Amino acid sequence: MWLFIFVFGLASLWDGFTTVYGTTEILGGGSPQILGASAIFSLIILAFLLNTNMIWKMAYDELLGGLLKIMWFVALGYDLYTSYIGNQYFILEGHGNNTQLFILLGITLLVTGSPIFLSLLWDNK
């Protein structure tokens, strides 16, 4: 189990890095303000995904639990999109054919899922 935790931990770091890059690209560049905002957004996204198990175990009738669940889906969608942009840049250098883009989608799904898997494994170790 520790091997899974180690591997998902490394993949989660990559996920955070690609989220920072993707956010920076979407916001239009690498000024200090944009880099700072991108890093903060990435940490928020990573916090949501690393706490998946806790968020989904909250009672459904609690207002906070409901809001966290909604925001978890927002974080997941944001992470998928920005990580895809980051992975496309770092793995395919910004371009690729249809097969490469399909494989990139699989890589992005696995990397984005890593903090979720880490959350589930960590809570059940």
Structural description of this entry:
By secondary structure, this protein is an all-alpha fold. The chain has one domain. The protein contains five helices and no strands. The chain has helices spanning 2-27, 32-50, 52-57, 63-92, 98-123. Helix 1 (2-27) packs across helix 5 (98-123) and helix 4 crosses helix 5 (98-123). The longest helix is centred in the middle third of the chain and has 30 residues, at 63-92. The N and C termini lie close together (8 Å). The mean pLDDT is 92.
Secondary structure elements and pairings:
Blueprint: H1 2-27, H2 32-50, H3 52-57, H4 63-92, H5 98-123
Helix pairs in contact: 1-2, 1-4, 1-5, 2-4, 4-5
Relevant terms:
about 120 residues; mainly alpha; about 85% helix; globular
Assess the beta-strand content as a share of residues. under 5%
* Bulk shape: globular
Q: Structural class of the helix and strand makeup?
A: mainly alpha
Rg (C-alpha, Å): 15 Å
Tell me about the largest β-sheet.
none
SSE succession: HHHHH
Number of strands: 0
N-to-C span: 8 Å
Which blocks of ≥5 consecutive residues have pLDDT under 50?
A: none
Average pLDDT:
92
Number of domains: 1
Helical content stands at over 70%
Number of helices: 5
